[in-house]
Amino acid sequence: MFFIWVGIVMLAAIPWSWFLIGVGAIMLATQAMRQMRTLKVEPFGVAMGLLLIAAGAWDLLSIPLPLIPILLILLGGYLLRKAILSGAQSR
Asked: Is 25 within the bounds of a domain?
């Protein structure tokens, strides 16, 4: 689906914000399919899907606040903390 979406975006010259929303929707749909097939849902995939949709909506609405960089920093901090704590628990 990702490559089909990229091809559509390139052929139709769709704006960057819609591209981000589409990729986020694909990521969320992937996680929904995993849940429907009783596979483990990946929290990172859900977080990235939501972040991409938020970034696309933020750009689409032309909101001047730097929310997306702040969200990226918070997400990176959370993932770093999770990695450090899981490494400490395995010792």
From this structure: yes
Report how many domains make up the chain: 1
Tens digits of residue pLDDT in 34-46 = 999 999 999 989 9
Please indicate, yes or no, if residue 21 is contained in any of the structural domains: yes
Which amino acid appears at position 20 of this protein?
A: L
Domain that holds residue 19: 2-65
Report yes or no: 35 and 21 within 8 Å, Cβ to Cβ: no
Q: Which amino acid is at 57?
A: A
- Verdict on whether the full-model pTM lies above 0.85: no
Beta strands in 1-90, from DSSP E residues, in sequence order: none
DSSP string, 42-71: -HHHHHHHHHHHHHHHHHHTT--S-HHHHH
